[in-house]
Amino acid sequence: MGCAGSSFAKGEGNKKIRKPKPWKHSEPITRAQLVQKRDEFWDTAPHYGGQKEIWDALRVAAEAELSLAQAIVDSAGVIVQSEDLTICYDERGAKYELPKYVLSEPTNLIPDN
């Protein structure tokens, strides 16, 4: 008789991640402003709870290609609630919410001159 949980592999059942659907910032934003917003988010995010290692893994995943991002979240034990990574949990049940602006660029990004 086999163990009931033997077919459950780490990362199995995790949603396959994808980039967020196209979105628009409240006002047109430059790449420099977007980078600044992202840096501010990642600098303050760990203060809202959760584990620093998970925040670090999420940042690397958010800035990586999708296939690499998938491997990062799977190996870090991140439980992906929404496919675009906007809501994730760690194995202890702590919630991690990521704004779309750290995951993709808005449709109204002002091109650099």
TrEMBL record:
Residues 14-111 form the DC-UbP/UBTD2 N-terminal domain. It holds the Pfam family UBD. It comes from the Eukaryota. Gene3D superfamilies: Ub domain-containing protein, DC-UbP/UBTD2, N-terminal domain. Residues 1-29 are annotated as: Disordered. This is DC-UbP/UBTD2 N-terminal domain-containing protein. It comes from Linum tenue.
